[in-house]
């Protein structure tokens, strides 16, 4: 009995056997691998069609629902595989090499000379068919790259030794965040020893607290001596600016730079953790008057950020406030400096729109309709990006548009 693959078939209460399920999974998995190879080949052909364009990757990426950066990486990997890793590319053509594995080798060997990359190619092609677990394959490739270019490996070790810093991790959710400290081993061990010593001194002050809680408080005390240690108020009294977006009918708030948190967590933050709370006034987005100038005042910038939760380019992932605000209809062409004609774009996406032949309009503030240089349309709103169809090139289709170089946004 064939496995049902449509809603109608499922409604007939068919009961596939285990063999049917496994056969379908195996076939669809093979189809997926074949599709990945086809997309990789297409990426190489796209590079050949646009050998000098800096912005062509954006249109390719939108068709496969990824960002311009992701498309650029895919195209670069395809070109490297054809030009520098012929054995892996032959495996792609033969259907034996996995695309993910081949792309990993292409990225890992990008800084190697052509002969060094070719040696790695020959060494890893046999195990690039999926026989090794991914972590083991990564280890094999790393070893071969180091063996092919030992001087480069040493240089990378020296560069890594300079990568010192303290930063917030992107793994933040459920009201918790992670702080990453990177430095030489001796310094990090000294920091850890200091945290441990202070945590032990807090045993009498915080008798009910777990060791992990005392260590967090210890680190806070070392970095901010004004931190209190009253367990009834919570281990840390913070001084930070936090942007919370709440609506009256939702039990969940959005915390910028973090993600969703419950309103119960917000109440705990306000009453037990925050040292001082200042509530900013609600901005009336519909009442933001445009300005007769190219420059964007702070009130409009804040309103645009509230209307658009992230980068407004199709399939973009950024949510930071550190972006350009683009005039969808260029100011030089009569576009107003208003909430309904401004949208956040990172610098790369801004340049793609200005110089790459893309157009954008907002029929309503917060809803951006894009047209790529080849006639496809995309709608971007707070829910994400959706392809909206449009022209499909065929015989006699007009040539792709190129945009004139004009001033259409501001940093």
How many E-type strands?
12
What's the helical proportion of residues? Answer: 40-55%
Cα(first) to Cα(last) distance is: 61 Å
Q: Please work out how many helical segments DSSP would assign.
A: 14
- The residue ranges in which pLDDT falls below 50 over 5 or more consecutive positions are 6-11, 231-236, 393-398, 405-411
Strand residue percentage: 5-15%
Mean pLDDT: 83
- Largest sheet at a glance? 4 strands, antiparallel
Helix/strand order, N-terminal first: HHHHHHHHHEEHHEEEHHEEHEEEEE
Strand order of the largest sheet: 8-9-10-11
Shape: globular
Whole-number tally of structural domains: 3
Output the structural class: alpha+beta
User: What integer value in Å does the Rg equal?
Assistant: 27 Å
Describe this structure in words.
With 411 residues, this protein is α+β, with helices and mostly antiparallel strands. The protein has three domains: 17-160, no CATH class; 179-273, no CATH class; 287-410, no CATH class. Helices cover 44% and strands 13% of the residues. It has helices at residues 7-11, 18-49, 56-63, 68-84, 86-94, 99-108, 114-124, 134-148, 150-161, 185-201, 211-223, 263-273, 298-307, 347-355, and strands at 165-168, 179-182, 244-245, 252-255, 259-262, 324-327, 342-345, 359-364, 367-371, 376-381, 384-390, 409-410. A four-stranded antiparallel sheet has the order 8-9-10-11, with no helix packed on it. Strands 3-4-5 form a three-stranded antiparallel sheet. A hairpin with a 2-residue loop joins strand 10 (376-381) and strand 11 (384-390). Helix 8 (134-148) packs across helix 9 (150-161). It is globular. The N and C termini lie far apart (61 Å). Residues 6-11, 231-236, 393-398 and 405-411 have low confidence and may be disordered.
């Amino acid at each position: 009995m064939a496995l049902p693959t449509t809603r109608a078939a499922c409604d007939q209460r068919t009961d596939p056997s285990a063999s049917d399920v496994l056969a379908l999974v195996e076939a669809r998995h093979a189809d997926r691998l074949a599709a990945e190879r086809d997309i990789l080949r297409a990426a190489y052909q796209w590079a050949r069609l646009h050998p000098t364009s800096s912005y062509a990757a954006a249109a390719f990426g939108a068709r496969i629902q990824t960002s311009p950066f992701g498309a650029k990486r895919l195209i670069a990997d395809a070109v490297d595989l054809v030009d520098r890793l012929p054995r892996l590319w032959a495996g792609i053509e033969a259907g034996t090499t996995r695309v993910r594995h081949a792309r990993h080798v292409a990225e890992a060997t990008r800084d190697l000379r052509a002969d060094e990359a070719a040696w790695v190619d020959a060494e890893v092609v046999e195990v690039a068919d999926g026989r090794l677990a991914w972590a083991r394959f990564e280890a094999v490739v790393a070893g071969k790259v180091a063996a092919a270019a030992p001087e480069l490996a040493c240089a990378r070790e020296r560069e890594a030794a300079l990568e010192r810093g303290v930063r917030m991790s992107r793994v933040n959710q459920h009201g918790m965040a992670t702080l990453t400290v990177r430095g030489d081993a001796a310094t990090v061990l000294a920091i850890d020893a200091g945290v441990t010593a202070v945590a032990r001194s807090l045993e009498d002050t915080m008798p009910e607290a777990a060791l992990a809680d005392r260590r967090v408080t210890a680190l806070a005390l070392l970095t901010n001596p004004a931190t209190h240690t009253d367990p009834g108020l919570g281990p840390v009294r913070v001084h930070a600016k936090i942007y919370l977006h709440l609506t009256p009918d939702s039990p969940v708030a959005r915390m910028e730079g973090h993600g969703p948190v419950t309103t119960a967590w917000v109440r705990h933050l306000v009453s037990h953790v925050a040292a001082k709370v200042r509530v900013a006034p609600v901005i009336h987005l519909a009442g933001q008057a445009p300005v007769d100038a190219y420059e964007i005042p702070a009130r409009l910038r804040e309103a645009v950020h509230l209307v658009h939760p992230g980068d407004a380019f199709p399939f973009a992932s950024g949510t930071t406030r550190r972006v350009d605000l683009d005039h969808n209809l260029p100011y030089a062409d009569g576009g107003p400096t208003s909430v309904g004609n401004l949208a956040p774009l990172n610098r790369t996406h801004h340049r793609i729109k200005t110089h790459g032949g893309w157009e954008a309009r907002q029929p309503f503030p917060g809803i951006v309709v894009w047209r790529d240089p080849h006639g496809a349309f995309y709608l971007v709103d707070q829910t994400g990006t959706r392809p909206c169809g449009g022209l499909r090139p065929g015989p006699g289709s007009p040539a792709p548009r190129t945009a004139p170089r004009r001033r259409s946004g501001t940093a």
